[in-house]
Amino acid sequence: MNRNYLNKINKAFDNAITNPGSILLSNDEQDFWDILEDVSFSAKLLIEIGTARGISTVLLTEVAEEIWTFDLQDYPIKKDIWNYFKISHKIYSYIIKDYLELATIISQVDFDAAFIDGNHNYDWIVCDTFLLERCGYILFHDYHLESVPRAIDRLIKRKGGEVFVKGKYAFWTNK
Ligand SMILES: C[S@@+](CC[C@H](N)C(=O)[O-])C[C@H]1O[C@@H](n2cnc3c(N)ncnc32)[C@H](O)[C@@H]1O
After folding, report:
1. Of 2, 93, 100, 155, which is most buried with the most CB atoms under 10 A?
2. Where are the domains of the chain?
3. What confidence tens digit (pLDDT) does each residue in 155-174 have?
């Protein structure tokens, strides 16, 4: 797979990807597709933690029928980007006020995969994995940070499973 979404977004949205605060770099996109292809990833309902400008959400709509995406902050450009790709009908975007609100919503929903790209502090990743591990399939961004592999090690100690790594992405499953 090679969708090249990030270049399209940059062209249409005045270099939204390379603006300060953006996270997904264009040269990371192929790793994203490669890891999902390697593990034959697909989902009916995927939970995303860390929406930001909604760029990873765009990519995830290729592999998930529906996405519920959560963030503490609202970046209005995400709606323009999702409309541009005509995918808004697949996405439910929540601006949460705290972890309790996130936990309350997630505890009431059946989902079959997750993407964690919110707060990259170790304790936060561990808390996010507590909420999401029951689905058995979690993609993590920023595996190059010390906190992410450490949180995945802890997840494996608790729940078993294995991890596949490609660039900055890691995919954990215990199915
Ligand atoms: C690295 S950015 C996400 C980028 C996005 N996934 C993408 O690739 O386009 C991290 C986002 O997580 C949000 N965030 C930070 N802590 C969070 C938390 N505890 N729960 C949910 N979102 C959080 C931040 O506001 C920020 O927008």
Report:
1. 155
2. 5-173
3. 999 999 999 999 999 999 99
